[in-house]
Design goal:
Two copies of one chain form a homodimer. In chain A, 29% of the residues lie in helices and 26% in strands. In chain A, the strands form two sheets. In chain A, strands 1, 2, 3, 4, 5, 6 and 7 form a seven-stranded mixed β-sheet that branches. A two-stranded antiparallel sheet of chain A has the order 8-9. In chain A, strand 1 and strand 2 form a beta hairpin. By secondary structure, the first copy, chain A, is of the alpha+beta class. The first copy, chain A, contains six helices and nine strands. The radius of gyration of chain A is 19 Å and the shape is elongated. The longest helix of chain A has 18 residues. The N terminus of chain A is likely disordered. Chain A starts with 22 loop residues before the first strand and ends in a 7-residue tail after the last helix. The interface between A and B is medium-sized, with 23 and 22 residues. Chain A binds a DNA duplex through helix 5.
DNA sequence: CCACATAATGGTCAAAAAGACCACTTATGA
DNA sequence: TCATAAGTGGTCTTTTTGACCATTATGTGG
């Protein structure tokens, strides 16, 4: 998977007040990029190296350009930062208090993305202070209203993950039922019963067994499953609704 | 209830490309204002009298001003159009395709509002072609991407109404359980069982009996109930979640 | 004054789902 | 071989859902 962190166009991050060519002056995009690692929910944060906010942490983002849609802009920022494309990404909402950015009037449209560990492996190893995966529970002091944006994104994720099968976007393509359960436990901050969770999942016939098992584990190897978008669509047409 | 429909500042509706003083040039606000009347879910639409879109229907909206927050701007547009204040209002999302408005680049932030029949009585009687409550199922051909915005708002409302007690904002302060049921049936387009619906509602202890009954009805008078925000907050703190 | 229509209200009952808990299986490292 | 950690299957009770029937209250029209 391509990783272009070192080329991240920091001059376009919205913490920089200076706009680039073709930018829309008063409209920025911010991205809340969630990842799941070692049983913890993480968010990608950037640290400014230059400009008025040098040393400050922020959500990654940048200016909206004239020639791109807002969805396209969010995808561009994610790609520029991580090299990832075709990632689950969704608009959170716009943030537009008058004084959210000192000395200028900038409305930002926040997006959140869910990325798979297999896709961001390279980033995790990245050791500069510029970009870092941080525990969601342990973040504060971001610039502007980014703390609030994150809080909002987290709330939206917690709600959405219970009613739509988007959690799979945080797991590898092939995963075990226990991994899935641990994902939900981490996001929702609850403890679930293993057999019951397993039964619930299999009853909705949403997961496809890969016919493979875990390798090199110090215990009985678990069956690997995958999420099938087509099956989900078909179930939805029959009036199916995903729950927890 | 004050009603200032005739003073609605049509020149600031976003269908007019010309911006007003203090406006932000490329940012508009559009409002999806829902009402409930005679068992039908309605939306407030405006018809342009002048300008390039004369005769066209649109969602009400206008420019975002420099000195106001986006939430404040949405509230201002609602007030200018209907005279209503302190109405349930929430951001839907931003719409920002490059070509959503011909010949200019305008990002719009859509809001939706729920208004009570007792509040909009005066508007219903308003007979000009400028502003009209229209059946949600029967709307198409709005300008720009307003059809899509409406579709989005409707989907969001349908989802939200099932998981949060916001439906009450469409009913009078005092309402019967049947009115509430009919509201849900209209929004969700389903048929519900009366005794079961009643039991479900009373079991969550969210509604407060007013101690009054319906008057002048040609059948057994129903108890009137009201929604109590404080009770809801208290229940939420105990881990309560509203469902259907 | 008496049926009648309409809606409120109360009750039952079976099916389905949720949740708690126990028991056993399987693969690996010590 | 044995302890361990995780997979897997089972049971049981409680809750919830949904369907349906019965009764009660209130105004209307004959």
């Amino acid at each position: 998977m391509n990783n272009r962190v070192e080329e991240a166009p920091l001059t376009f991050i919205s913490g920089e007040i200076r706009t680039g060519p073709g930018a829309m002056q008063n409209l920025s995009i911010d991205c809340v990029i969630f990842g799941f690692h070692q049983g913890r929910l993480k968010v990608l944060c950037v640290k400014y190296a230059i400009g008025p906010h040098a040393g400050c942490w922020a959500l990654p983002g940048g200016w909206l350009h004239n020639a791109e849609s807002i969805d396209g802009s969010a995808a561009r920022h994610l790609r520029d930062l991580t090299g990832l494309e075709d990632i689950y990404m969704e608009q959170l909402q716009a943030f537009g208090s008058v004084d959210r950015v000192p000395d200028s009037r900038i409305v930002t449209i926040a997006y959140y993305a869910l990325v798979r560990p297999e896709d961001y492996e390279l980033i995790i190893g990245y050791t500069t202070t510029d970009v870092q995966w941080r525990d969601v529970d342990n973040i504060s002091g971001l610039i502007f209203d980014h703390d609030e944006i994150l809080r909002c994104a987290l709330q939206s994720l917690r709600h959405k993950v219970r009613h739509e099968p988007i959690g799979f976007n945080l797991l590898p393509k092939k995963f075990t039922l226990l991994q899935l359960q641990e994902l939900y436990e981490a996001i929702l901050n609850v403890k679930l019963d293993k057999p019951n969770f397993r039964r619930k999942m299999s009853k909705m016939k949403l997961l496809v067994p890969c016919g493979e098992k875990q390798q090199h584990v110090a215990h009985r190897a678990a069956e690997l499953y995958r999420f099938d978008e087509a099956i989900y669509q078909r179930l939805c047409e029959q009036g199916f609704t995903f729950e927890v």
